[in-house]
Amino acid sequence: MRLLLIEDDDRIAGPLTEGLGRYGFTVDHVRTGAAGLADAEAAPDLVLLDLGLPDMDGLDVCRSLRARSAVPIIMITARGEEADRVVGLELGADDYLAKPFGVRELIARIRAVTRRAGAPAYDPTGPVEAPEMPPPTSGAQTWGPLTVNRRTREVHLDGRPVALTPREFDLLAHLAEDPGTVCSRQQIMDTVWDPHFFGPTKTLDAHIAALRRKLGDPGWITTARGVGFRLTVPGDRTASEAAG
Ligand code: CA
After folding, report:
1. Is 236 inside a domain boundary?
2. Which H or E run contains 173?
3. Both 11 and 66 in a single domain?
């Protein structure tokens, strides 16, 4: 799958291109709206469009892209661009991601958008070095009373839905990829937040606290002091894993 990334900030484009490459995506990266529109002639499978571009308003790029093709467009927006997101969606963008975001979150959006657009599904069983990505056909995973469904991004506890924010879901899904194994803080920040996340990671603790609260038992997430966190089934409930 070939992505066109229109983003002038190399600090974002660099890690993104590298991260997406690890998951088997080919990324054409351009830094201006004009270059993006020129490159779009080559019919990419999907466009990742930063709204804050040096030469053109990203919304105008969005409008021009949509005028000439049905290519799925995911906008990349900064905080404070809520109004732009709404306009962008009205102009025909398919989705948006607010910075900062992780590669995993982006891939989930890419999958959702391409599925909606009826594009050929991204096939991770192809020549892709992505051992940590579950195939899109794998359904819910269950640990004791907890079920995490990556496909529908739904979480159930004892059969009842648990309402999580997108970030909380990504965090839980990340911990749930290898339950019992400690995920380091940096690893979590890299995948759930932004690759090469710099700065204080207090937000991680806040999200862990929110998850514990929503799961109704702090025992679901164990702190490995000074290292990170791991998912554990509280009490004596037997963990099981199932696909389906
Ligand atoms: Ca920018």
Report:
1. no
2. helix 166-176
3. yes
Taking all residues of the chain, what is their mean pLDDT, rounded to a whole number? Answer: 82
pLDDT at 134: 40
pLDDT at 45 over 90: yes
The domain total for the chain is 2
* Ion ligand 1, residue ranges at CB < 5 A: 8-9, 50, 52
CA of 232 to the centre of ligand 1 (A): 40
pTM: 0.52
The reply to whether 133 falls in a domain is no
What's the pLDDT band for 201 if we cut at 50, 70, 90?
Answer: confident
**The pLDDT of residue 166:** 85
Residue 6 sits in the same domain as residue 112: yes
Q: How many residues does the chain have?
A: 244
Centroid of ligand 1 to alpha carbon of 85 (angstroms)? 14
Rounded Cα gap, residues 207 and 165, in angstroms: 10
Which domain, by its residues, includes 199?
140-231
Ligand 1 centroid – CA 1 distance (Å): 24
Which among 102, 111, 109 is positioned nearest to 191, based on CA atoms?
102
Interatomic CA distance for residues 17 and 150, integer angstroms: 23
Can you give the CATH number for the domain in which 112 is found?
A: 3.40.50.2300
Predicted confidence (pLDDT) per residue in 132-183, tens digit: 444 444 567 888 889 998 888 889 999 899 998 888 999 999 898 877 888 8
Q: Name the residue with higher pLDDT: 196 or 209.
A: 209
- Domain assignment present for 23: yes
> How far is the centre of ligand 1, averaged over its atoms, from the C-alpha of 8 (Å)?
5
